[in-house]
Amino acid sequence: MKILEQKIQKDGRILGADVLKVDSFLNHQIDPELMQAIGLEFAALFANEKIDKILTVESSGIAPAVFAGLALHVPVVFARKNKSLTLPENVWTADVYSFTKQTTNHIMIDHRFLSANENVLIIDDFLANGQAAEGLLKIINAAEANVVGVGIVIEKTFQKGRQILDEHGVRVESLARIKSFENGQVIFL
Ligand code: G4P
Ligand code: NA
Ligand code: NA
User: Where in the cell is it found (predicted)?
Assistant: First the structure.
């Protein structure tokens, strides 16, 4: 997606060896017009699929997921990260380890918002190590719902997320695919 790549080139900042900071339009401040274009792009890519619902994880997945939901006219559910000590009842849960932050998040979705046989599209901001998407796949499986595909805003192809999702046999569509960071520049595939 050209306008997304241009935005990344212009406003993204590379941190260390493998982190792209995009907090001026995606992860802190949000560019609504870009998010709207992203939502329409996901809707076009998955136009031939039957989709009942979109799933994402709080917090950074919510903006692109909501615009995809708007374009596809379906509800959006975000998995919450459980911060309380007691596990709430009637929830699907999964543990998501973050290699970037070296912490484990316990994500959860209330049974009321994910039912058997629903056709689900997963949307997230980044595909890095694939742990977030894999956690959502585990929840979809437990709920006996169906996964239609995974839509990613920014994929870092040099990390193992894509391979993990391929092993699950799930369709992945990424709007920007980063091949590498070279001399402070983002190189796309
Ligand atoms: P994964 O998302 O593919 O599982 O990979 P990883 O475990 O490495 O990612 C942990 C968190 O870091 C995720 O956010 C993910 O979106 C984010 N992340 C990974 N690589 C990058 C990057 O290059 N740039 C930015 N900006 N974020 C990256 P999270 O823990 O779910 O937090 P939240 O921001 O959604 O609240
Ligand atoms: Na995320
Ligand atoms: Na994030």
Answer: Cytoplasm
